[in-house]
Design brief:
single chain, alpha/beta, Dihydrodipicolinate Reductase, domain 2, 11 helices, Rossmann fold
Length: 369
């Protein structure tokens, strides 16, 4: 009897050392490993802080063709520099890449990431042309990979509320919608693009100037809110102060949606203020965003008289990068901006630039055509 008891105690001791998970909660999962591929974009500065606050994400490598930039973000993230991109593409432990490169490098990097089976965050705009952007979207879709881009305005509570109201029919038939994104980045005394971010004003690297750089944010909102194709566009795009050779600084565009609604899109690096950023006009409702406040009028919604700021808003959604990291880390029900959406925005913007050059109305290249 005593021998049997001793044998049982010995077996329990062995189990306690050999299989501690039987007696304690499972150890936390290892963090998902990602790589920073390209550090050129002005938004790269927020990346180290975004990943350092997380325990479920680890940066394994940093790469940039510029060794100075690579060293800067290697230091701020604590990750070693990859001297060869194949270190990243061939590393099976790396699940995703965050691409903050110059826009002219997107096509090569995104296609390589798709071939290597890495989920992709790539800054906006996705591509120079509709053709390039659709090629990237097709490659990511074919590889069944997650994608996200830097359209951060959707997460704003005001925009979330307006999306809800559009879907609920509060505006009736939308007849006009207008978006504007502007700042003073090209104006003295300290133009934003005269130092680290000079590539933004080089069309060979950026593909667009101020109109495309900032306008793509409002364009995303217009397309997201309307949720229908743009059939044709026209635009006037200008060098503005002409501080930068061969680079536009501002523009205004007109978009005709499939429903017949008319959109207008303004963007500028030459504005000292941007008070009215969005307006929606419909047969039943009206909304305008002024200095970050929403004025909303609709007889179908109690209290929406349009006279005082509307403050009954949903909670903010995660920032675009945070949402991507959530999804990569396995969080459920995360809403991402698909590569096809990003590609369509590139197609519309390309049509706007071509319309300005040709001084005529042009059709927008639709997906699959």
């Amino acid at each position: 009897m005593m021998k049997t008891i001793c044998s049982c105690l010995l077996a329990l001791c062995v189990l306690s050392f050999a299989a501690p998970s039987l007696w304690a909660a499972d150890a936390p999962a290892a963090p998902v490993q990602i790589a920073l591929v390209g550090c050129a974009h002005s938004h790269t500065g927020g990346f180290p802080g975004a990943v350092k606050k997380r325990t479920d994400i680890k940066v394994k490598y940093v790469w940039d063709h510029d060794p100075v930039r690579a060293a800067k973000f290697s230091k701020s993230t604590g990750a070693p520099i990859a001297t060869d991109l194949n270190q990243i593409w061939n590393d099976r432990d790396i699940a995703a890449v965050v691409i903050y490169s110059e826009t002219n490098r997107h096509l090569e990097l995104v296609l390589a990431a798709a071939k290597a089976g890495k989920h992709v965050f790539a800054e906006k705009p996705l591509g120079f042309t509709a053709r390039d952007a659709y090629a990237m979207a097709d490659a990511l879709k074919g590889a069944n990979l997650m994608f996200q881009t830097g359209y951060s305005m959707r997460s704003d509570p005001i925009m979330q509320f307006l999306k809800q109201q559009v879907e609920a029919g509060a505006f009736g038939t939308i007849t006009r919608i207008r978006g504007c994104t502007a700042h003073d980045g090209a104006l003295p005394p300290k133009p934003k693009f005269d130092s680290d971010f000079h590539w933004f004003v080089d069309p060979a690297q950026a593909g667009v100037g101020g109109y495309g750089d900032l306008g793509t944010h409002s364009l995303d909102l217009l397309l997201w809110l309307m949720n229908e194709p743009v059939e044709r566009v026209s635009a006037a795009i200008s060098p503005g102060t002409a501080r930068y050779a061969n680079c536009d600084e501002l523009g205004e565009g007109l978009l005709v949606f499939k429903s017949g609604a008319i959109g207008s899109l303004a963007a500028s690096w030459d504005d000292v203020a941007n008070p009215v950023s969005l307006e929606i006009c419909g047969t039943l409702g009206h909304a305008v965003v002024v200095n970050g406040q929403l004025f909303f009028q609709c007889k179908k919604v109690p209290g929406a008289d349009g006279k005082t700021p509307w403050t009954q808003l949903p909670t903010p959604k995660p920032h675009a990068l945070d949402a991507f990291l959530d999804a990569v880390a396995g969080k459920k029900d995360v809403t991402l901006i698909g590569a096809s959406e990003a590609a369509y925005r590139a197609a519309v913007m390309e049509a706007l630039y071509n319309a300005s050059r040709q001084q005529k109305w042009l059709d927008v290249q639709q997906p699959g055509k």
